[in-house]
Each structure stands twice: as structure tokens, then as C-alpha cells.
């Protein structure tokens, strides 16, 4: 993986409660990694709006400064002694944060609440970050965090992005002293959104096809794990191969985990798709933070 020695953990903040939960997670992770925490508030409000009528002393810059100062104070209060820097920048959020992510070890963003169906709402900036950032991106759900489980889950399907996810998941598990659950799904299923429950309840396999599909899933999983155990002998690994919609299998398998790690695009994605449909569904429905890894460029 790319060497980012000395790079910070980046926390993207805004005025939402979800971003504060993400900030807390980022501060804890910066401590675990012995990295400084860089807090950035990127906003385009002054580019498209005027000062609110009837508020002559209103200053958007003062508002932004108060926001990042509050974020810095919150991080330092949570992790005393943490090295923290906080800035705001005026402009379209996605390009600003992508430039910041290019110099970061890890970028952390929050979801923006939940829909009526219970799915997390990840804005366009978050989707662009997850799909194109040059560093791993962690999306933290806007919900009360669960007690630490000491387990990380990684989704594997043999794709280049899954190999990157496996490498990062092993390193992260080793750094945390956590166990690792490697999950691969197999099934022949019709299209449909996870949140609308349109995924099928039955799968069109006979016993021979089922056995062949499971064996192929195990092969792909083994390819993604090859060499990792030897490099990280201290990490306990559980291998899980399940029949079902990949997003559903991953979400269910990570319910009692601290973190879910996925590749940005799997083997079945359309050419040119930056963020695969499984990754998008996982980001919307996971109850735990999700790390998205892109395939390494050689």
C-alpha cells in the first residue's frame, strides 16, 4: 500500500450531528494510529447565497471559525494531548476534501441522518469521497456507537479493490489487536435495493450449482487472503462464506463488529462505475463504520 508516513487522519465536519459522531471516531483513530488529526470544514454557502436579510452583523466566516473551533475543542476534550489542526475553506466541498484526502492517511466523514426506510443518507460529497479519494475513506453512521467488539469484518470477492481492502483490514486489525472476519457472498440473485427488501428470498440454485458457487467463493476468498496470515500471524482470522445478496451478507456479518471494510468496486460492477452497487448498499445500511478501499494503482 502507498506509504503515507506522517500523514494525518482527516475529519470532514459540517453543522450536522452526524459529522460530530464522525469527528469522535476520527479522534479515536488518530490516537490509535499515533497521527495528528486534521479537521476541515469546506462550505460553498457564500458562493451561492447572500447575507441573510435583517442580520447586518452576520458573518459566515465567523460562523465557520466557531464551527471549527468547537470541533477542535471537542476532539481535544475527547483525546487529551491529541495533535489537532482545524481549518475552514470556502468552495465546493468535494474538490476541497479530495485535495485534503490526497495528503491524508485516512479520511473520515459522517452520514447525513437516515431515511424513512432506515437507510443512511450519504450526500453527494460523501459518495464522491468514497468513490475517488486517494486514501481510505471511513463513513460513520449517525447513530449511537456500539460497545467495542474487538472484531473487524472485511468483504472479499477476488477483485483488485478487495485485495486492497484485505491488506488494509489486516493492518488495522493488527494495530487494534482485533480479530478479523473475512466474508464472501455467493448467490444468483435478481436486482433490487436492499432497503426496499426487493432482494429475493429464494435463490435459483440446484445442489450442484450451490456447491460449485460455494467452492468458487472459497477460492476467491483464499486468493484475497493469500500471504496475509503469514504477514500478520497475531491476527485471528475467521473465514465465512455465505449464500445471499452480498450487501445483506456483509451488513449482517458486521452487526457485532467495530468496522466493516469493503472495496470500492467488486467483480460484478459495470466498467466505469466508480463505486459499486454493493458498496453503496453497504454504506447505506451498515450499523457500524464502513471503510472503503480503492484498488491500488501500479
TrEMBL record:
It comes from the Bacteria. Residues 9-141, 151-294 form the UspA domain. SUPFAM superfamilies: Adenine nucleotide alpha hydrolases-like (SSF52402). Pfam families: Usp (PF00582). PANTHER family: ADENINE NUCLEOTIDE ALPHA HYDROLASES-LIKE SUPERFAMILY PROTEIN (PTHR31964), USPA DOMAIN-CONTAINING PROTEIN (PTHR31964:SF113). Belongs to the universal stress protein A family. This is Universal stress protein. It comes from Streptomonospora halophila.
